[in-house]
Design goal:
The chain contains 14 helices and 20 strands. It has 508 residues and is of the alpha/beta class. The longest helix has 24 residues. The two termini are 48 Å apart.
């Protein structure tokens, strides 16, 4: 082990309890999106002993009773250091993702903002749910004080499509720390250098604040065995994941098979349907086409909130929107490559499955060095008959379906739950919107009127979740202040005098 430094480039190391550790397992490098050329240092997969050390240190950190103000100070210090290190972080993240410094600058600002929001909540103890029932009848109504305690050690799986906001220092890590839980984060193998640099910054904040070094560890792996071992490690108390349905479900199943099952907060695939009313299509069809194209092509469709299904009115105005969207895609200049080869393969396989459905028409952008966007046009009966059209294809593609208004309820009922559902309507169509909003609210986490689902505000009222398969925990959000609640467990103290309560329990 060597002392951790924050003023050098990534070295290919994991960071375990405040020290750099070189993993002895399978070696790998980040790859430049599109070309596949290696970039950055070679990383080694950590050993089982090294993983044990990370979890052991996290458990030691979790055993300490930490003042909420110390947690708040840590979160604020991380935010300040991330903001100050932009010149180091942004070029590194761009080299591994090709997302561009403009996009990544905004993402870094969001990441910093998340930490500062969580810091305020931790310092004010606003998510600790303190409730007191005074004593009534001594036999049947004893005094109760309900509060919450940290859940324990949290395993965080970094996402690929947001290397900062959902990476090792993303929303899951900030929420877990704000809840008083140490984190062992598994870096995404497509962006290991970014993860190491960000991990160094967080670890330096832990040291400067004077907390146990086990509060944050960052581990690297080429494949999936380490991730499985992390979920099954008996020292881990919860899992947070953002990624594919297949990956999230695999982690959920592994956690359920443990002798002591633990919660898995996985945010996974989502179709995010958009419904256009006849009035909206007639009044502002071109603006809607522009907005839809901008939303499903944003970031090459690599957003969990990408609108993957557009339900158009079966009339001339709906047809005009369809023609405009087809034109936007077929005339599109070659765009950026997808983030890494796994997404590229998945996008190709998913689009092939949709294209093989009888009766659909696929309109693609011209060939080039980047990904080929697509618009798929399908009849409503075909949508209802073929599940492939109702499943997310991660990447720059959306499905357009003309729907008679009488069919809309049945079509929405046939869709799996999603993170979002969107309605576009005119003021005189409020009755139309009311019924559909009720229907959507029963199966999505966020219902949007007049906007588009890409772009998630980080705020106290946000809910970024939804019933399975959108997530494995529909009661919770992975974005916003309430994300902290995933990592605190309720406990009630009955008939305790203040003098006998643990020091960390609020009085009065």
């Amino acid at each position: 082990m060597t002392d951790l430094s924050t003023d050098t480039a990534p070295t290919g190391c994991s960071i375990i309890a405040g020290a750099e550790v070189r993993g002895p397992g399978a070696a790998f490098q980040a790859r430049v999106p599109g070309s596949g050329e290696p970039t950055g240092p070679t990383f080694g997969t950590v050993s089982s002993d090294q993983l044990d050390e990370a979890v052991r240190a996290a458990r030691e950190a979790a055993a300490d009773v930490i003042d909420p103000l110390a947690v708040s100070t840590l979160l604020g210090a991380i935010a300040d250091r991330l903001e100050q290190a932009g010149e180091q972080i942004l070029p590194l993240a761009d080299a591994e993702t090709a997302l561009g410094t403009t996009r990544l600058t905004g993402e870094l600002a969001r990441t910093v903002g998340q930490f500062r929001m969580m810091a305020r909540a931790a310092g004010e103890a606003t998510r600790r749910d303190h409730v007191i029932d005074p004593e009534g009848d001594a036999l049947t109504e004893p005094a109760l004080l309900r509060t919450t305690v940290p859940l324990g050690v949290v395993a965080v799986f970094a996402a690929s499509n947001f290397p900062l906001a959902f990476g090792v220092a993303g929303t899951d890590t900030s929420a877990a720390l704000a809840g008083g839980c140490p984190v062992v984060a598994k870096a995404h193998p497509a962006q290991p250098g970014t993860a190491e640099m960000v991990g160094r910054i967080m670890t330096s904040a832990v040291a400067d604040v004077g907390l146990h070094p086990g509060w944050i560890s960052i581990v690297h792996e080429q494949g999936h065995e380490l991730g499985a071992a992390l979920v099954q490690h008996q020292g881990v108390d919860a899992v947070a994941f953002t990624g594919s349905l297949r990956g999230g479900r695999a982690l959920f199943d592994l956690a359920a098979q443990r002798p002591r099952p633990i919660p898995v907060y996985a945010e996974m695939g989502s179709l995010n349907p958009v419904v256009i009313s006849p009035g909206a299509a007639a009044a502002r069809g071109q603006a809607l086409a522009d907005g839809i194209a901008g939303s499903f092509l944003l970031g090459e469709g690599q957003f969990c909130t990408k609108p993957g299904l557009i339900l158009l009115p079966a009339d001339d105005a709906g047809a005009a929107i369809r023609r405009s969207l087809i034109g936007k895609v077929t005339e599109r200049s070659p765009a950026h490559p997808l983030l890494y080869d796994g997404i590229t393969r998945g996008f190709g396989a998913g689009l092939d499955a949709v294209s093989d459905v009888p009766g659909v028409a696929v309109h693609r952008s011209p060939a080039g060095d980047g990904s080929r966007a697509a618009v798929v046009v399908a009849p409503v009966d075909t949508l209802l008959e073929h599940r492939a059209l109702r499943e997310e294809v991660f990447g720059p593609v959306t499905v357009l379906v003309d729907v008679d208004q009488a069919q809309l309820p049945a079509v929405l009922d046939a869709l799996d739950p999603s993170l979002t559902g969107t309605l576009h309507f005119e003021p005189d169509e409020a009755t139309w919107a009311t019924g559909l909003a009720d229907r959507l609210a029963r199966k999505v986490g966020r219902v949007i009127a007049g906007g588009f689902p890409t772009g998630v505000r980080v705020s106290p009222a946000q809910h970024h979740g939804g019933p399975y398969p959108a997530t494995t925990a529909p009661l919770h959000t992975s974005v916003g202040l309430a994300a902290i609640d995933r990592f605190r467990r309720p406990v009630a103290f009955q008939s305790f005098d203040d003098a006998a309560l643990p020091n960390w329990v609020p009085r009065g």
